[in-house]
């Protein structure tokens, strides 16, 4: 269940980066919210299944994507759900399994063309 969810989230985030019409953005937000809430439920209840997927989850177009970390501070927003997922990962997944994927993800963000600082800062925020 996690692999298709991560691929879907990555695809939606890429599409949301290019979306210009209001209806497409609203539909994308709903899809992002449902995927992130599902991932958060898995991270909270079954954290032992998350480590094999951490590299995919922390790629620059998945969880650290700026489309998930917008300015919306509503508690039902995609931003709040992404923060909830990051908190669940940081607190439920054993730190020894989390450190290497976090640094790999941050390195990928900083090595890409155009240097993705926002994505890297999102990953570093999980280390608090």
Question: How many extended strands?
Answer: 0
Spans of at least 5 consecutive residues with low confidence: none
Q: What structural category do the secondary elements indicate?
A: mainly alpha
The rounded distance between the terminal residues' Cα atoms is 29 Å
Helix content: 55-70%
Number of helices: 6
The proportion of strand residues reads: under 5%
Q: Write down the overall geometry.
A: globular
Strand count, sense and barrel status of the largest sheet are:
none
Secondary-structure element string: HHHHHH
Rg: 14 Å
Mean pLDDT figure: 89
Quick synopsis:
With about 130 residues, the protein is an all-alpha fold. It contains 6 helices and no strands. The chain has helices spanning about 1-20, 20-45, 55, 80-90, 95-110, 115-125.
Give the helices and strands, then pairings:
Elements: H1 2-18, H2 22-45, H3 54-57, H4 78-92, H5 95-111, H6 117-125
Question: How is this structure best described in words?
Answer:
The chain is mainly α and 128 residues long. Helix content is 67%, strand content 0%. The protein is built from six helices and no strands. It has helices at 2-18, 22-45, 54-57, 78-92, 95-111, 117-125. Helix 1 runs antiparallel to helix 2 (22-45), helix 2 (22-45) packs parallel to helix 4 (78-92) and helix 5 runs antiparallel to helix 6 (117-125). The protein is globular, with a radius of gyration of 14 Å. The protein starts with a helix and ends with a helix.
